[in-house]
Specification:
- The chain is an alpha+beta fold.
- It has 7 helices and 18 strands.
- 48% of the residues are buried.
Amino acid sequence: MTEYLPKDLLPFAARTGRWTVTQVQDQPTLYTTNLGSLIRMVCSGSDCVNVYVISNGNPKWPDQKYAYRVDSDIWHEFYAKEGLAHIELPDSDEHLVEVITAGNTDFDDVWSGGEGFALTKVTTDGGEIKAAQPRKLFNFIGDSITAGCWIRGKAASVSYGAQDTYSALACDYLGLDSVRIAYSAAGVLRPGTGGVPVAREFLTKIDDHTHWKVNKPDYVIVNIGENDRKFEDDEFLTAYSNFINEVVATFPDAEIIVLSPFSQQFSAEIEQVATQHMLEFVDTTDWCTSFTDRVHPDEDGSEQAANHLINHLKGRLTK
């Protein structure tokens, strides 16, 4: 058996997620607080891969959920309480294995209580794991819609599907790497659930004491503002402008694309800020017409939005 510990996995996992190495339940873990954090690894010389995780959410609520796939085939979900995913490979040739943080609950205290996703090791039956070939890199900044909540219903964790968001589907089609900086219920004025602060504060931090080593994406896509609907227009305008200032300063070499929320909440204010900062603004009216509730896209709505995003991006990516 060949064993890969968190410190071995971090160098390539960090490209596709906001991962860090920290102690959880007295064990070193590969740790993140973000749904949609992905590990892309190429395994060769082995007939299986085992991914070991810790059940680390609020014990009174549904368990944290992960998903995996092999060679870009269908996703298979598993829960953290199972302890591991045993992933059979069709042969000992080279295979792409991906693991994603797929579901949690609003009651997991991810920000100050250490209740994020925790992976302890990956093993093979003697083969080798290496990083997948890097691709063009996108950061997605947003809220529960970008994170992957309520895609299949209204049950916490169970109905989540971070692998099926509009951002994930678009990246799959276009062949992109991505990092998600998104939390349930969060906005530029409203804090998120799980103790998460407003967007300006979580932009460069994984939790209340862990600073994220900021990456260097080719593009940053911002889709936030839906959860600020109870605030006044002028208050939102100021806060959103300040937040975009932070995004520009944090990712100075990236092309930044600003989306209006799918509900069109504060669309005019967001367009005004994008224009002032000379950033691309995308009107997402009619991008999504199918929802779990009145806010969260369901599977059909996520696919609709993904197709619109694909059509918007693919011309520039093929130049």
